[in-house]
């Protein structure tokens, strides 16, 4: 009986020793790995926060009219036009740019630009309309062409260049993807009437930009001389030369 008890005691002591050694080793591993685990947690938290930020919809900088569609008159075999008003609703200058899935058959005027806070512009979109396939009815033909407007916040009124969007890709926001909707050119509709008004306004704005600036007075040239004053001085000089020539004769 004491032998069994002694054997049991030694076995108990051995078990306790192994248990203490395992606990100490485990404690050391936890202490040694605390920095790595905390770093892993921080990295995981950062990745989760970045994903969460990407899922949060950004606040739109531009307001479009029409907001989601580009209306075109349906005229197969011809180049037709649509229009969209773009307004900067933010408190800073914003650059915008058009993108399309069919750059060979579509183009925009202007293709991009910079708008001051509260400024708006009407952009004209040109598209070539293909003939219907498989005996489809004209108005049932669906266009696969899409347009996208992207924006970028810029500092102050700077010159627009498309490279702005390549240099700051992480700051570029997609404002809207516009799909094409065909309208019957011979049937009056509110969309067609609105399109005609916007196209007329866009043409008027284009003609106004083409006109040279009005003459607000004499232009300054050279070293601060005024054109009219320069003419008067030259006339006096020529008259003086004529008088001196007569006196010499």
Structural account:
Keywords: Phosphoprotein. The chain is an alpha+beta fold and 249 residues long. 41% of the residues lie in helices and 27% in strands. The chain has 4 helices and 11 strands. The protein has a 5-stranded mixed beta sheet. The protein has a 4-stranded antiparallel beta sheet with strand order 1-3-7-5, with helices on one face. Strand 10 and strand 11 form a beta hairpin. The chain is extended. The model is unreliable at 1-13 and 29-33 (pLDDT under 50).
> How would you characterize the largest beta sheet?
5 strands, mixed
How large is the radius of gyration? Answer: 38 Å
Overall form? extended
Indicate the mean pLDDT. Answer: 77
Number of helices: 4
Strand tally is: 11
Our estimate of the beta-strand percent is 25-35%
Domain MSP: 61-183
Protein name: Vesicle-associated protein 4-2
GO cellular component, one term: plasma membrane
Region (Disordered): 21-44
